[in-house]
Design a protein that fits this description.
Number of domains: 2
Largest sheet: 5 strands, antiparallel
Distance between the termini: 41 Å
Number of helices: 4
Oligomer: single chain
Structural class: mainly beta
Number of strands: 22
Order of helices and strands: EEEEEEEEEEEEHHHEEEEEEEEEEH
Shape: globular
């Protein structure tokens, strides 16, 4: 089956929202020694306001890219990669960094971030733009999903191969011991931390494959919840058929004063196509066709006997795992008045 991918946001309903982003993969720290060791790229800081010319890096085409910091102990270094793909047949492979993966590593913490939110990212600058002044005009390196390439704070806190990055962030007062301790308490026993599906608050982007259900890890100060639901699909001849209808109308006024969550599409990464032969998508208007979501549209569900309507979930009127996870997101968000 072909894959449908979009980057939606979870939005609060009561006309209060903020616009933020987040996401990642994992990396390692290794000890390199001997004459065959790769070049160690020394950078002085992860603080965006202190970057110098020597902190400029070019990762283009590299499968693995080692970095060091001034106070790295011995040969301890961090080994970065773009994407790690594990296959039973061929083992682990590393996707090389794409062309123009040049710029500055820095610690990113968005305005109004949740308590445990933050990540190391690569700000891509113009070719040959190795002056720190280019940073202000750069953009974050993206993954194929359209989400930023990054190492999130729970990964940094819990994986021993990120120990040097962890030390550097503490040394520069970019993170606190309390943040790291809380991340370890929540994630230390987890075999994998998937950054692209780990979210901390409402309005944070995450990638969606329309042929699968949504599966997210929701992080709050009190605990971790798992958010799983299938808002995109309906049954058709024994198969799950993706279907969504986009509306540009504002949320219904009858939600006023209630904590109601919507899904909004922020961008389309791969063009949306129906993958079920013969499926016509029986909706009122237009008949016989799949209405594709556009950037800025709310996710809308179709119904057989009435007009499509935006997906909405009242987080206080339901006593479910989904409602509990959404309440954590709501409580961890700073909702800005329009």
């Amino acid at each position: 089956m072909r894959v449908w991918r979009c980057a939606p946001q979870i939005l609060p309903n009561p006309q209060k929202s903020a616009t933020f982003r987040t996401l990642t993969r994992s990396y390692t720290v290794q000890t390199q020694g001997g004459s065959g060791a790769p070049a160690r790229h020394l950078i002085s800081t992860l603080n965006a306001s202190l970057l110098g010319v020597d902190d400029y890096l070019d990762l283009s085409g590299q499968h693995e890219f080692p970095i060091r910091f001034p106070k790295s102990r011995g040969n301890t270094l961090a080994l970065l990669w773009y994407e790690k793909i594990a296959r039973k047949s061929s083992g682990t492979t590393y996707t090389p960094f794409p062309d123009h993966s040049n710029g500055f590593l820095y610690y990113h913490r968005p305005q109004n971030a949740a308590p445990l939110e933050g990540s190391v990212r690569l700000c891509v600058t113009a070719q040959a733009g190795n002056a720190p002044s280019f940073f202000a005009h750069g953009r974050d390196l993206l993954l194929p999903s359209g989400c930023p390439w990054q190492i999130i704070l729970p990964q940094i806190a819990c994986r021993r191969h990120y120990a040097r990055i962890r030390d550097q962030l503490l040394e520069e007062d970019l993170v606190t011991d309390q943040q790291l301790s809380r991340c370890r308490a929540l994630f230390a026993d987890r075999a994998k931390i998937r950054a692209q599906s780990t979210i901390f608050r409402l309005t944070q982007e995450f990638p969606v494959n329309f042929t699968n259900r949504i599966s997210l890890t929701v992080v709050g100060e009190a605990g971790v919840h798992y958010l799983r639901f299938s808002a995109f699909r309906i049954w058709y001849q024994g198969e799950m058929a993706p279907h969504s209808r986009a509306l540009s109308l504002p949320p219904s006024p009858h939600y006023s004063g209630r904590r109601v969550v919507h899904l909004r599409f922020t961008k389309t990464v791969t063009p949306v196509e129906c993958t079920v032969d013969g499926y016509t998508g029986e909706v009122s208007e237009p008949k016989g066709g799949l209405v594709k979501p556009e950037a800025g549209d709310l996710l809308t569900r179709s119904h057989w006997n009435r007009d499509p309507e935006p997906w909405a979930y009242d987080i206080d009127a339901n006593d479910t795992d989904l409602a509990a996870a959404l309440r954590v997101l709501w409580d961890g968000s700073v909702l800005l008045a329009p």
